[in-house]
Design goal:
Layout: H1 12-30, E1 39-45, E2 50-53, E3 63-68, E4 74-75, E5 86-91, E6 95-101
Antiparallel strand pairs: 1-6, 2-5, 3-6, 4-5
Amino acid sequence: MRSFEIPRTNDPKIDASLTRIQQLLQDAFKRPLADVENLVKDVTLSTGDVRVAHGLNQVPTGWIIVKANSGANIYTVTPSDEPQKYINLRATAAITASLIFF
């Protein structure tokens, strides 16, 4: 990973905040996606609702497809009865995918 430099403002409070942001970003970029806590592997979806446990303990904002065995689109239509734990997903065709929920 390339490191990056942050600008300095000569204001100690702003510089301290920028340094902390730089540290957080560098730590985040070192972490491989495979180590993400909310990675759900090998979810098999089709054109009907499939209930998927997302592991967030809150309503998800979205998801990122990190692996898929087809080009089908994944989407949600029917709200979950327990949205803090589960999301109902559908696909435009059969697909097995790994997803990161956020």
